[in-house]
Amino acid sequence: MMNSSWDFVVSESGGSPWTPPDEVSPPPSRAARGEPPQGPPRLMTMENDAGRPSTPDPPQASQGSPRPTWGISEPADEGHPQAADRASLEAARAYKEAGAPPLNPVPIEDIPYHRLWRSDPTHRWWKPLVEFCISGPLYMVLAVLITVLMFAAPAITGGPRLTVGPNGYPDSMLDHPSIFGLMFLSIAIMVPCVLLARFFMGPRPLGLIFSVTGRMRWGWLMRCFIAGLVIFILAQLVGVLLGGGMPSPTLHGSVTVWLLIISIILVPIQCVGEELAFRGFLLQSIGRWLKHPAWAVLLPVPLFVLSHGYDLWGLISVGILAIIAGFLCIATGGLEASIGLHVSNNLTTILLGVFGMADPFGATDIGPSEAVMTVIIDGLYAVVVLWMARRQQVETRRPAVVAAQSWPGWALHNAGLEPVTDQHHTITWRKS
Fold first, then answer.
1. Which residue of 101, 128, 290, 341 could cross-link 285, Cys pair, CB 3.0 to 4.6 Å?
2. How far apart are CA 300 and CA 281, in angstroms?
3. 74 pLDDT exceeds 50?
4. CA 51 to chain centroid
5. Does pLDDT of 99 surpass 80?
6. C-alpha–C-alpha distance, residues 183 and 164, integer Å
7. 158, 153, 156, 189: which is closest to 170 by C-alpha?
8. Stated pTM of the model
């Protein structure tokens, strides 16, 4: 009984596209037929010659180069276990030596920070919504518990009853280290909430929320922080010179020491929490749905602004910081630059308040001059950071990872066809 399997033939002679496995006849001579010298073999199908699609010959590396033969260099026995592999490798080598371009070229672009979900093939459009449903309620529960503890702290320590000012912050925080610490802790808990939700929902690896390298770039973070700290200290000195004097620091013994310790520990974590939430999760979630980076930068700004209890010009200043921080995330490929800006801004302001030289929570009566100063200071920081990133060649995009492209024979192999050869150098792709 004749074998009914279909064989796809790569023939040097241009013979029949289908050959029964056990009935292989030698191909007629091309010279006898009066045909020109053979070119690379063709991939044939079950269609007749008139309707058969042809595979174009690969371009040659140069006009004078000989056209390679897509066969094996010596007869291969069909029963030999390595014959098919040698035929495949020889065809791939010949195609490469012909100087042909890659088959099926696909334009590949490296991935910016706001589109890092593309590096995880298992990520889906709905996962940011589930991520929010995990991190949001978890944060609200923890924040409520800390708020209850904050109001109960004066009764526990025997202090005065806690009151809340018009800016939404507890009054006299700088006189009560416990309330001061709990207030910053209520924001710092964003860190575990966001990271826990990202751990479950992806994209993977978890470190993609920090940067395009899949991790926090600690050296780059420290350089950004130092640059920001220098700029903000210089800005404070300029303000003192223009204002005509420096306020005298006020120290309160152990209270000042505790405030200083809490500030150094919790203020950076509080800033990291806000950056993870507003420039990490929100920016990348919007980038999951909208491609242009402007959407990812601008849409989280109102939420970040409304989370601060300032007056109009104070909120405008916060909005300016949010826009510059979001821009730096995409321009530098991670959160490090925005964290450096946020930490240096908050830490200098809080430390001035700890020493009684400013009111870090009193941004309810500022004017447009403060907003202008924010543009100048934060803009200067952005310029310095971009200059450092370019000079130090900081990675701003993640290399795209794609499956290896292959020559047509491998596609046939994936379709379940196996190459075999006969004594006439005919490579037959036979249904396995």
1. 128
2. 10
3. no
4. 47
5. no
6. 12
7. 153
8. 0.70
Torsion sign, CA atoms 146, 149, 150, 151: positive
User: Are the CB atoms for 171 and 367 separated by under 8 Å?
Assistant: no
Helix (H, G, I), strand (E, B) or coil at 153: helix
Instruction: Please report how the helices 282-289 and 127-157 are oriented relative to each other, as an axis angle in degrees rounded to 10.
Output: 160
**Comparison of pLDDT for 314 and 85, the residue scoring more:** 314
User: Rounded to whole angstroms, how far apart are CA atoms 58 and 68?
Assistant: 10
What are the two backbone dihedrals, phi and then psi, of residue 369, each rounded to the nearest 5 degrees? -65, -35
Q: Which tokens hold the place of 134?
A: 């995990």
Which tokens is 30 given? 């091309």
Measure the CA–CA gap between 53 and 407, rounded to whole angstroms.
17
- Give the integer Cα–Cα distance in Å for 233 and 230: 5
Pairwise CA distance, residues 116 & 35, whole Å: 56
Instruction: Give residue 237's identity as a one-letter amino acid code.
Output: L
User: Among candidates 399, 402, 404, 403, which has minimal Cα distance to 214?
Assistant: 399
DSSP character string of 361-385? T-TTS--HHHHHHHHHHHHHHHHHH
Mean pLDDT to the nearest integer, 181-195: 95
End-to-end CA distance of the chain, in Å? 18
Closest CA to 335 of 222, 226, 221, 227: 221
Q: Judging by beta carbons within 10 Å of its beta carbon (0-12, 13-18, 19+), is residue 47 exposed, middle or buried?
A: exposed
- Res 58: pLDDT: 46
User: With contact defined as beta carbons under 8 Å apart, do 260 and 354 qualify?
Assistant: yes
Q: What is the pLDDT of residue 3?
A: 46
In sequence order, which residues have a C-beta less than 8 Å from that of residue 36 and are 6 or more positions away?
30
Report residue 240 as tokens: 């003192």
Read off φ and ψ for residue 388, nearest 5 degrees: -65, -40
Q: List the structure tokens of 360.
A: 């870090």
Residue 417's DSSP bridge partners are 431
Question: What is the torsional sign of CA 75, 78, 80, 85?
Answer: positive
Question: Which among 347, 301, 295, 346 has a CA at the least distance from the CA of 325?
Answer: 301
Q: Is 429 in a helix, a strand, or coil?
A: strand
How wide is the angle at C-alpha 406 spanned by C-alphas 405 and 410, nearest 5°? Answer: 140
